[in-house]
Design brief:
The radius of gyration is 18 Å and the shape is globular. It has 7 helices and 10 strands. The longest helix is centred in the N-terminal third of the chain and has 17 residues. It folds into 2 domains: 76 residues, 2-Layer Sandwich (Nucleotidyltransferase, domain 5); 131 residues, Nucleotidyltransferase, domain 5. It is α+β, with helices and mostly antiparallel strands. The strands form 3 sheets. Strands 3-2-1-6 form a 4-stranded mixed beta sheet.
């Protein structure tokens, strides 16, 4: 029997699901569940990324324990959030959550250069205060972005912790409001406005069908 493991992490909890084919039917079996431990730290709402990494590993260990060892592992999380990595491969903390109100008035600051209408035309993503583009603008303003070599979307970050490979994946990248809906790649105009080099996102978001 060939087993596959999906690590499905939502905004409040995560679960590990083993999938396999038996008698021509797909069978899904939840084997592990955990809380996300979102927390308040120095006035910000942040993700406990150390806890998330530990729980991803704990669930994989559980698969071995019950003798359902997967051949593949895939991680899926909520969109828009990311972790910044410096040139030494270390996290630039905190990993701020989309629930944090830091982006509330950012839209008005950039409206004249990058309007809600323009962003929608380029990306097809409607405006939400928590969109990655506004979060990165906050990091740019604070200087946090200056030290970053990579920005990894949350599932890409967790995969990076498991494998050492830093690579963003198209589906989650498309939630950023920074991927051009026609080219399926990071939008040049948006990157230029933010003063961000495409290399920050590791490889491109480009979708290989």
């Amino acid at each position: 029997m060939i087993y596959h493991l999906a690590v499905d992490i939502g905004a409040s909890s995560g679960r590990h699901i083993i999938g396999y084919v038996e008698n021509g039917k797909i069978v899904l079996k939840e084997i592990y569940r955990f809380e996300n431990n979102i927390k308040k730290e120095n006035g910000s709402i942040v993700w406990d990324i150390e806890h998330l990494c530990e729980e991803v590993i704990n669930g994989i260990a559980k698969a071995k324990e019950i003798d359902l060892v997967p051949q593949t592992v895939a991680i899926d999380t909520w969109g828009v959030d990311y972790v910044l990595i410096d040139e030494n491969g270390k996290e630039i903390l905190p990993a701020v959550s989309y629930r944090d109100p830091r982006t509330t008035n950012i839209q008005s600051e950039i409206e004249d250069k990058l309007s809600e209408k323009k962003i929608f035309e380029l990306t097809g993503i409607q405006r939400n205060d928590f969109n990655t583009i506004y979060q990165l603008y906050c990091d740019k303003k604070s200087g946090k972005l200056d030290k970053a070599k990579y920005a990894l979307m949350m599932p890409a970050y967790l995969s990076y912790k498991l494998t050492g490979v830093a690579k963003n994946e198209y589906t989650n990248a498309s939630t950023t409001a920074m991927v051009n809906s026609k080219t399926k790649d990071w939008d040049k105009e948006i990157l230029e406005f933010l003063g961000i080099d495409k290399s920050l996102f590791v490889n491109s978001a480009h979708h290989h069908s």
